[in-house]
Amino acid sequence: MNLPAKLLLSLKPWRNATTWHIAFSGGLDSTVLLHLLAHLAKAQSLPALRAIHVHHGLQAVADAWPEHCRAMCEALGVPLQVVRVQVQPGASLERAARDARYAALSEVTRANEVLLTAQHLDDQAETLLFRLLRGAGVRGLSGMPRQRPLGEGYLLRPLLDATRAELEAYAAEHQLSWIEDPSNQDRQFSRNYLRHQVFPVLTSRWPQAMATMARSAAHLSEAQGLLDELAQIDLCHARTCSEFDWLGLPSLELASLVKLSVARQRNALSHWLEPLTSLPDSDHWSGWADLCNASGDARPIWRLADGELHRAGGRIWWLSGGWLRRSPPVGTWGEPSLPLALPDNGVLSLSGQIPDGPLQIRYREGGEVMELPGRGHRDLKRLLNESGVPLFVRGRLPLLFKGGQLLAVANLPGLDGSAAGGWNLHWQPMGEDQGLS
């Protein structure tokens, strides 16, 4: 099958998208992809084509590349957008540049649009070997996925079945010109070292090494799909309802997880955590065992890259963002008839017959006492224990005072004002978009 036919077949399910964005670096691979699509569009009914060039500003020679890309796109009749990004300093320049690039590409990809990138079969083989040398698991060894969500749309890699040699042959046939990035020759970068030093040796002994390694990545991708299905089955049993679902926090029932084998626990938890945080490496999974095995009265916390797992009330809870910051003091509630925005802690409102003021909002400091009808004075700590309030919530739970008297505790039946005064103190915690990193 020739290259244009192979590309069209790969993109067949996406012909109804409104726009195909092409990630256009100006290098060989993306130049071939752009040229292929521009010429196919003359004979085929394709979505609107747009190119995007991400300028990292990492080397002086790169300043000339946007102009080269503009000239190429003008010749092919494809609109071009140039986006300049700031690459954050860090241990891996490759990774930082990639993160900045994909953040920019994510911004331009809207609903019912796709972003096309030009990675090919040789890139897939390099990815597999690179990740194998880093000790990756099945997910990592699955290589680059053919498609994945990006922004409001999807990222597609339609050339993963094509070899670098095929792209070079197409470029030579059509006399294409492209940018040669000097950094691609720098052997200090791991991928360049593999490409220039390792793969030539491998392919001299095993000519089909690239294709067979890419095939292995496909097998591992299928295996990962089965593991994901198993994770969904296991998570279905753990996603039980909780009386504290109103917190809006991701949580799972611990008992359902610990009944599983250790391998299935890891698989289910990895699947659940994957959209929330960078997953821990093998050495750091000991934190999960510590969380499970801690005594009943302990407050175990497993700290991960983008948040924390807490154990409370027979469940594990994911906390991140504002949930990990201490809520600033509030003070007087000047207009109790209006909702009150709590710094880093959601929104508070009163409904029903609002008590006379002045009213204050405070957070628990210890030693608070509340008077309840028919029960007299009770320690707030005991009342929170009776209600089963998770420990990580107690310091954030808004308390309504009048003078020095505690009138209500938000959201807790019998303590929220409804029993004594016919009114209700309601707290809407931070939404998931605020609470998640």
From TrEMBL:
Its main location: cytoplasm. It holds the Pfam family TilS. Coiled coil: none annotated. ATP binds at S25, G26, G27, L28, D29, S30. It is found in: Cytoplasm. Belongs to the tRNA(Ile)-lysidine synthase family. Ligates lysine onto the cytidine present at position 34 of the AUA codon-specific tRNA(Ile) that contains the anticodon CAU, in an ATP-dependent manner. Cytidine is converted to lysidine, thus changing the amino acid specificity of the tRNA from methionine to isoleucine. This is tRNA(Ile)-lysidine synthase. It comes from Pseudomonas izuensis.
